[in-house]
Structure formats: structure tokens, C-alpha cells
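One-letter codes give the sequence; the fold follows as C-alpha cells. An example follows:
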Amino acid sequence: QVQLVESGGGLVQAGGSLRLSCAASGRTFSRSTMGWFRQAPGKEREFVAAISWIRGRTAYADSVKGRFTISRDNAKNTVYLQMNDLKPEDTAVYYCTTRSGDKAATTQTEYAYWGQGTQVTVSS
């Protein structure tokens, strides 16, 4: 079993920054691809970013490229999402997720475990 706990969400003004963290436990974190998805009210959950475990390959949604950066610290079993130049449309619950293997997958069905989510609210 895998446990994922997100933190770092909050309220920020447009143009501001936040860094989300996701602490993983229960499995060999360093062998897992990690990802972030988000879900805004009334919308489906969507891919944000992912990072693979062998080569550290990353993938980003077009809407966040150049503004968000995903990274990981295997020694701390933690993955981060640095979010800069935040926009009101980034408002959502952000979920951390993980899958086995070295593919920075972008679809929900490719991930097996999910955290409870952390709220990010960007005011205009």
C-alpha cells in the first residue's frame, strides 16, 4: 500500500507563487513515477505534471508550461510542484499520484494511488 500526503496549498493573489509538497510512504518511492493532477469545481480532473523515476523525465500540461516545475527528492520521499505566476484559472484541488515504472504518464487511469488533495485558490 502507498500513502500520499499533500501540503502547501492556500490562497494567493494572481501572479504569486506556491510550492506544493507530496510526502510518500509505504513503497519504494524512488522507483515510482510521480504526478500531479487538479480538479476545479464543476470540471473533470486534469493532468498537470509528472516526473519519472529513472531519468527524471518530466511532462507538463500546456496550460502550466513555463510556470510550473515538478521535482523530486528521493532521499526525502517527496515530490514538489513549484507554481509561479499563478492565475485564477489555476484554482483547484491539487492531487498527488504515483505509478510504477519510468513513464511520465499523463492520464488518470495510468496511476494507481492518490492523495487526498490540497486546495489552491488564486484570487484576481
Summary: Residues 11 and 114 are 23 Å apart (CA to CA). The longest strand covers residues 92-100.
